[in-house]
């Protein structure tokens, strides 16, 4: 809310007062003296559990003891795996992504399901403005301040304008206490870890196996037909492939009622599929040209 307005030296209005906290926040980064160097050697216990509802299977990395790089991680090692160092993240903070992947096979001959951890830094350390990670919080409290006591009310009884005003506390005392609210604003830099969990579970089944085999055989038949069409009608050497695949036979060949007529002939082919001779068919022969 706006307070009283203040006039300039020349009598013109220059601005109005507002109620707020002061002084304003200073623009400076964390100093090396404020860095907690021992944080690099701290350890973090990461506990993760997953449940695969389709197979009614559960998995976790809790175990019966603390195991390094399985459920117990050192902060400095996590930063190194993310491609950075503690020195680069200590002063102005960092945002580290922790991806946990559960890819599990529930077959009897498979190994035990264990998580795979991947670390990456999400913020850009070379950014000029608002890089790293920080947040603010404030503490509010009251302090008493000694102020001079107000003068006693000496207004005449017939002065109704001021006689009706209530008398302040500690009237007649030399001083009084006034409570003033204060605020301490803290800007804190640190390392923030963001966790993301993914997973997939599978088990061997005979039905998908035979379905895939049948689909593969069907694709082989289609592939043969498509290959012939491309070779005979599309390739530049299509004529050569056509001559090697097909044989043309000229002559008068007729078939009526499943038998050969008198003017029909039987062609004999040699080993190279060439017509070597032509003769009339036998009386009881029902040969067809090859």
User: Which structural class matches the secondary elements?
Assistant: alpha+beta
The average pLDDT value, as a whole number, equals 77
Amount of helix: 10-25%
Major beta-sheet overview: 3 strands, mixed
> How many runs of DSSP E, i.e. beta strands?
13
Question: Using only CA atoms, what is the Rg?
Answer: 47 Å
| Order of the strands making up the biggest sheet | 8-7-11
**Helix segment count?**
5
Low-confidence stretches: 159-172, 259-264, 275-280, 284-290
Distance between the termini: 107 Å
Series of secondary-structure elements, N-terminal to C-terminal:
EEEEEEHHEEEHEEHHEE
Percent in strands: 25-35%
What form results from the Cα inertia axes?
Answer: elongated
Oligomeric composition of the shown chains: single chain
Protein architecture, described:
There is one protein chain. By secondary structure, this protein is of the alpha+beta class. It is 18% helix and 33% strand. The protein is built from five helices and 13 strands. The chain has helices at residues 75-81, 86-90, 160-163, 206-233, 238-245; strands at 2-7, 13-18, 43-45, 49-52, 57-60, 72-74, 94-105, 116-121, 134-148, 175-189, 191-202, 266-269, 275-279. It has a three-stranded mixed β-sheet with strand order 8-7-11. Strands 1-2 form a two-stranded antiparallel sheet. Helix 4 (206-233) packs across helix 5. The longest helix has 28 residues, at 206-233. The chain starts with a strand and ends in an 11-residue tail after the last strand. The relative contact order is 0.10.
């Amino acid at each position: 809310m706006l307070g009283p307005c203040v006039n300039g030296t020349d009598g013109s209005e220059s601005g109005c007062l507002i109620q707020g906290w002061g002084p304003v926040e200073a623009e400076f980064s964390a100093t090396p003296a404020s860095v907690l160097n021992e944080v690099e050697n701290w350890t973090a216990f990461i506990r993760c559990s997953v449940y695969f509802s389709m197979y009614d299977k559960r998995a976790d990395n809790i175990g019966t003891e603390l195991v390094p790089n399985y459920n117990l991680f050192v902060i400095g090692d996590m930063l190194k795996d993310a491609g950075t160092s503690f020195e680069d993240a200590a002063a102005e903070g960092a945002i580290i992504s922790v991806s946990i992947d559960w890819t599990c096979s529930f077959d009897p001959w498979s190994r035990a399901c264990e998580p795979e951890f991947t670390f990456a830094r999400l913020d850009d350390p070379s950014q000029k403005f608002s890089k790293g990670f920080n947040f603010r919080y404030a503490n509010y409290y009251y302090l008493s301040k000694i102020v001079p006591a107000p003068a006693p009310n000496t207004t005449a009884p017939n002065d109704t304008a001021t006689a009706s005003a209530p008398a302040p506390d500690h009237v007649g005392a030399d001083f009084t206490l006034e409570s003033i609210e204060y605020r301490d604003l803290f800007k804190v830099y640190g390392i923030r870890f963001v966790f993301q969990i993914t997973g997939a579970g599978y088990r061997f089944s005979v039905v998908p196996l035979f379905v895939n085999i049948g689909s593969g055989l069907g694709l082989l038949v289609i592939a043969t037909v498509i290959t012939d069409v491309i070779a005979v009608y599309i390739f530049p050497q299509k004529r050569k492939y056509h001559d090697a695949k097909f044989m043309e036979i000229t002559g008068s060949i007729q078939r009526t009622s499943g038998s050969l007529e008198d003017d029909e002939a039987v062609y004999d082919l040699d080993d190279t599929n060439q017509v070597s001779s032509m003769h009339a068919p036998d009386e009881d022969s029902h040969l067809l040209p090859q």
